[in-house]
């Protein structure tokens, strides 16, 4: 009897713990990337406490790259962090992931980026990561070091900046987490310095390095504040409009993916701000959890919780039966049309995640 009891526990735990990497009905995404007249943009809204986004992101990227030649990946990070993702995709050296939040902190994201690296090295036109969120002081500093280090006999202002960033005092004073007052002051001063020296930098830097310095200087997202949503949208609009590519994939926290937020409904979110651009053909969606685990905080000692959003949460619970009968797989993409068309007030599609694991920290 004891054995049967333990077996039942093991089976039920296994059902929750097994990650699924393929999304049923992902062809709906492919169909959206069809316009030659507009910039085609797909948004996937994710929850950072779940492993689902990390598990499906490589699959979706590879699928859309093969079917639609999509290779521009816009993610929720600053330009400096995006620089290290691109360094990793080019070299496969995992030290670069240590300068990123997700790749450096979470096991499923480490595996996701490994998968993307192995895929990317076979491509003639490689994947490129673009960051539209705020920079973090330590990450920005180390990106600048990495850029400037390869240039012989740099100007004095660069040498002084590099000497400062290389010190233990810099590491101990500034953060790679949410920007503190000191972080914001340092980054602001460095941006002013770089902006004042742009003519000199343009003469000595390779175009790709100069463009990154410009992105760092012109970044409109500074911190978690009331202007963040507008900043994300301004960054995304400018970058998308200035790139020749037609197809873009945005992976971002799901509150940014809603046309209308479920709370603070008067606030304009990233998706709505992008939809206002006439030349943008937008499809936005989010991962919705049904019986899936989420980490309750980013402390490895805290317990996980199981979320039943389709059954319990507004507005999904009002359409529980309709959604439930369509969500036949562990991960199912469901367009919000026909009998679910009232829900496209919020999103164009949802990915229902059933019995999927929480995010786990790297050891």
UniProtKB/TrEMBL annotation:
It comes from the Bacteria. Residues 1-17 form the signal peptide. Keywords: Signal. It comes from Lutibacter aestuarii. This is Haem-binding uptake Tiki superfamily ChaN domain-containing protein.
